[in-house]
Amino acid sequence: MNTPTKILLDERDMPTRWYNIVPDLPAPPPPPLHPATHQPAVADDFAALFPRALIEQEMSTARFIDIPGAVLDVYRLWRPSPLFRAHRLEKLLDTPARIYYKYEGVSPAGSHKPNTAVPQVWYNAQEGVRRLTTETGAGQWGSSLAFACAQFGLECEIWQVAASYRAKPYRRTMMELWGGKVYSSPSDRTAFGCELLAGNPDHPGSLGIAISEAVMEAAADPQARYTLGSVLNHVLLHQTIIGEEALLQLAKVGETPDVLVACTGGGSNFGGLAFPFLREKLAGRIHTVIRAVEPAACPSLTKGEYRYDFGDTAGVTPLMKMHTLGHRFIPEPIHAGGLRYHGMAPLVSHVYALGLVEALAIGQSECFARAVQFARSEGIVPAPEPTHAIAAAVREALACRESGESKVILTALCGHGHLDLAAYEKYLRGEMVDLDLPAATIAEAMRAVPVIE
Amino acid sequence: MNTPTKILLDERDMPTRWYNIVPDLPAPPPPPLHPATHQPAVADDFAALFPRALIEQEMSTARFIDIPGAVLDVYRLWRPSPLFRAHRLEKLLDTPARIYYKYEGVSPAGSHKPNTAVPQVWYNAQEGVRRLTTETGAGQWGSSLAFACAQFGLECEIWQVAASYRAKPYRRTMMELWGGKVYSSPSDRTAFGCELLAGNPDHPGSLGIAISEAVMEAAADPQARYTLGSVLNHVLLHQTIIGEEALLQLAKVGETPDVLVACTGGGSNFGGLAFPFLREKLAGRIHTVIRAVEPAACPSLTKGEYRYDFGDTAGVTPLMKMHTLGHRFIPEPIHAGGLRYHGMAPLVSHVYALGLVEALAIGQSECFARAVQFARSEGIVPAPEPTHAIAAAVREALACRESGESKVILTALCGHGHLDLAAYEKYLRGEMVDLDLPAATIAEAMRAVPVIE
Q1: Are A88 and B78 an interchain contact pair (Cβ–Cβ within 8 Å)?
Q2: For the residues B214-220, what does the mean pLDDT come to?
C-alpha cells in the first residue's frame, strides 16, 4: 500500500477559482430561450429570479471565476474534501485496477450540494436579498440551502416533494434545525399547488412541480429570489471545485485517471468532477474516458431527446436545450431521489451531444448490491445517488480483472446514505425492484415538449 | 483567522501506539473482583469472555502498547480525525476564548466507537474466534462492531435495548448492512431475557440487561467471545489515539488547552481524549483543567457512590470499583442513549476519586439549545451525547466573554447526529423535558449494590 488511503489537501492548497468550461468547448452551448417569445433569453429575463452576480456567471465566457473570500471561509468547514484510494474494495474485487473516489459526504449536509448553496446564498446576501426559496426532492439540496442560509442569516423556504416530505421526516428536521421552513409540495401556498391538490389531495408531488412553486413564490416577492441546486451553468461552475481538488490530489500521488465515472441527475455532481478533467483532455494533457451514469428508471441522456424543454412541470422557466424525457414526465419512485429529474444540465447535454463524454444507465438493484460491497469494504455507507457511480466503477474494475489491465478509475462518492437507510432496509429485505421504462411511456411524455422553430 | 479551520494530520503522522495511563498514576487503580469470591480477579476469570491479548491489555502496566499494522490499515479509512478550530461558533458567542473540537464523526459508524471495535475484532480473529456478541443502546457501538466484523470476516450478534430497537430502526439497518445480526433485548434467546419478557412482554430493556444477555450467550459458546464498547481499561486504552492525535494537532498550531471538557457515559470518549493530556499534566508540561460532563438524568460521577458494583443488571460480570448509581438503576429515556449507563469506567472513577479531574452534570434542554447554535454556526449536527460537551464548552466560553480571558478550550465532538434527528425534532417542537432524578431514587437503587468487606 504505497498510495495512502486518504489523499488530503491542506486548506492553503484549496483552489480559489471555479472553472467555466464554456470557452474551452469546440462549439458554444445553445442559449436558453424566453418561454413566451422563444428568443434567446437576456440577463433581464432572469432578474426576478436570480441576483445579478449569478446571472453574470450563468452567461459568462470567462475561463476562471474567483471564489469570494467569505465563501472560501465557509468551504473550509469541510473542504478540501478527501480523495480516497479504495484499497479494500480493490482487494474484495480482486482487481488490478486502482480505484479512487472523491468523497463529498464530509460536508455538513452530507453531499456536494453545499458547494453551490454557499455561494448562491452569499451572492444573494450581497445584493440585499433577505429571503430565498427552493425545491428539494430527497432533501439533500434543501438541507444544503438551509445550512448556507444559517451561515449568512437569510430566510430559507423549501418546497419538498410530498412523497419525500412524508417518507423522509428526518431530512425535514435537518432543514428546520438549520432554520429552514419546509412545505410539502404541492402546497396550498401557490395557485399551481392548490390546483393540483384540488385534483388529488394526496398528490405525491415531483421535483418539477416543487420547482414551479418555489419559482412562482420568489417571482411574486421583490425581496425574494429563487435558488436551484443543479442543472444551471452557475451551479455546475461552483461544483468544479470538486474536480479541481481531485486533479491536485491525483497529481500528489502521480496518477492520471484512465476512466472517470460519476452519477448524474440534474448534472451538477457529474459536471463538478468531470469538467476540469475534460479541460485537461481537450488540451491533450490526459486521455481519460469520461462517463456519466444515470438511473435506468430516469435515463434522460441515454433515452431522452436533445430538445428545448422547460426546467419545471408548469412551464414557467426559460426553455433550455437539453436531453429530456419531457417536462411532464414523472419518474418512478426509485430510491435515488436526487436523480429523479426529467432533464439534464444543458452543459452536460451539450458535451454529450458533442461526443466528448459517454453515458450509461444502471438499474437500482445492481447499484445497491455494489453499495453493500462498498460499505463492507470501505466502511462508508453511500447515498443512493452515487451507488450508480460505484456500480459503474465496479463494472470497470471487474473488466480489468478479466483483461489484466491496471486502469486508474476515478469516481465521485457525492454523499453519504445516513438519511437513506430505509432504502437499504428494502434492499436487505429483498424488496427492491428494478422499474422498467417502456419506450411508449417516453414517447408519450415527449408529446408535451414544445416544438421550437 | 490565522489558525486554520481544520488542523489535519497526515496518515504518516498517525500515532502508532496507544497510551496506558495506569503506570503514570500516583496510586494503582483498585482491581476487579471475582463476582462470587470477591477476591481480585485473575486473567483466567476473563478467559471465557475475552481473548488473551485483550485480557493482557486490561491488566497491563506498560505505558505504551503498539497498535497492530492491520488495525492501523483500517484506522486509515478515517484517521487521523480532524481537529477543528470553532471560528464561527466563537464569533456567534462573541467570546475571546479559542475553542477546538476533535471530531470523531468521520468514522464509518459516525462516532469514536470504531477506534476500539477494530482492534477488539482483530485480536479475537487472531485467536481463532469466529463469533462475537455485544449489546448496544443507541446503536453507535453495535454498528461500530458490525463494521469491524465486516472488515475481518467475523460473525457479529448484537443485543439492542428494546426501546432503541423500536425507536431507531435505521441504526439496526446500518448494523445489518455491515452484516450484523440484531436482536431486541430482552430477547427470547437467553434464559434471563425470557424471564424478563415473561414478566413484561413489552419490556423496554436497558444497557445492563443487554450486557447480561450478550455475556451469557458468549460464555455458552467456546467459539464465541464477548465485546464491550466502553468502561473497561482496554477500551479506554484504544480510545487514547484521540488524545494522542489532538496533542500533535494542537502542537502544530502552538496551542495548549486551558480547559478540556468531554462527555462521559461509560467513560471511553472522555478517557480517550483526556488521558494523554492528563499524562502531560502529571508530568508538569501543561496545566489543563480536565472536566467530565455527564447527563443530569444519569449522574454517576457527581451523584453516584464510589463502590464495587456489577457492570451488568443480572450481576454476572466481575465487580468493578466505580462511581455507580447501582447496577439495577434504569436511567430515564433521555436522548443521549450512549450516556445511559449506571456506572463509570473504573479508570475514570479512579482519576476522579484522586482529584485529578473534575465533573459536572448538565440537563438535556441546555445541551440541545447549544447543539442547535453549534449546528447553525459550525455546520455539523452533533450526536446527543457530545451536546453535553458542547454545552460545557459554551459555558466556559461565555465565562471568558464576561472575564475577558482568552482561554483555549478543547472538547470532543465524538459523533454526528444524523441518526438522532428524532431527538432534534422533539427539541424544535418544544417537547423536550429535563428529567429530575430525586436523591431518594438513587438511594433506593444503591440498596442492590453488594457490600464488599
Answers
A1: no
A2: 93
Indicate yes or no: CB of A173 within 8 angstroms of CB of B421. Answer: yes
B348, three cell numbers: 475514570
The per-residue pLDDT for A236 is 98
Q: At A18, which helix (H) or strand (E)?
A: strand A17-19
Could you report the per-residue pLDDT of B238-275, keeping only the tens digit for each? 999 999 999 999 999 999 999 999 999 999 999 999 99
Reported pTM: 0.96
Among B200, B232, B264, identify where a domain stops. Answer: B232
**Which of A6, A12, A179 has its CB closest to that of B376?**
A179
CB B294 within 8 A of CB B359: yes
Counting Cβ atoms within 10 Å, is residue A116 exposed (0-12), middle (13-18) or buried (19+)? buried
Q: In terms of domains, do A300 and A386 share one?
A: yes
Reduce the secondary structure of B63-104 to three states and give it as a string.
Answer: CEEECCHHHHHHHCCCCCCCEEECHHHHHHHCCCCEEEEEEC
Q: Say if A24 falls within a structural domain.
A: yes
Average pLDDT over residues A129-138: 94
What is the DSSP-derived secondary structure letter of residue A298? Answer: S
CB-CB contact of B149 with B119 (8 Å): no
CB contact under 8 A, B177 and A424: yes
Residue B216 pLDDT > 90, yes or no?
Answer: yes
* pLDDT over threshold 70, residue B393: yes
Residue A169's pLDDT is 86
Compute the distance between CA of residue B123 and CA of residue B117 in angstroms, rounded to an integer.
Answer: 10
What is the ipTM score, two decimals?
A: 0.96
Number of structural domains found in chain A: 2
- To which residue does cell 484549496 refer? A14
Task: Say yes or no for a CB contact (<8 Å) between B8 and A8.
Answer: yes
pLDDT of residue A25 exceeding 90: yes
* C-alpha distance from A15 to closest chain B C-alpha (Å): 15
Q: Are B17 and B302 in contact (CB under 8 A)?
A: no
| B226 and B267 both lie in a single domain | no
CATH number of A193's domain:
3.40.50.1100
User: Nearest 10 degrees: CA dihedral of A403, A404, A406, A410?
Assistant: 40
- pLDDT for A382-397, tens place per residue? 999 999 999 999 999 9
Question: What b/e string do you get for A230-239 counting C-beta neighbours within 10 Å, with b at 16 or more?
Answer: bbbbbbbbbb
Separation of alpha carbons A289 and A348, rounded Å: 15
Residue A138: per-residue pLDDT? 82
CA distance B335 to B138: 9
Q: Which residues contact B410 (CB under 8 A, 6 or more apart)?
A: B100, B101, B102, B246, B250, B257, B259, B260, B261, B273, B277, B288
Cis status of the peptide bond prior to B119, with omega within 30 of 0: no
Give the DSSP letter of residue B385.
Answer: T
pLDDT band, residue A331 (cuts 50/70/90): confident
**What is d(CA A437, CA B139) in angstroms, rounded to the nearest whole number?**
39
Residue A437: its pLDDT value, please?
Answer: 87
- Mapped onto helix, strand or coil, the DSSP state of residue A306 is strand
- Give residue A334's pLDDT band: very low, low, confident or very high (50, 70, 90): confident
B169 has pLDDT over 60: yes
Mutate to test the interface with B, among A6, A143, A165 (most CBs of B within 10 A): A6
pLDDT band for A330, please (50, 70, 90 cuts).
confident
Residue A11 C-alpha, separation from nearest chain B C-alpha, in angstroms: 7
CA distance A331 to A115: 26
**Is residue A189 helix, strand or coil?**
coil
Domain ranges, residue A291? 6-14+72-110+234-446
Same domain membership, residue A345 and residue A267 = yes
Domain finish residue from A208, A232, A256: A232
* Residues A228 and A295 grouped into a single domain: no
Is A1 within a domain? no
Question: Does one domain contain both B245 and B317?
Answer: yes
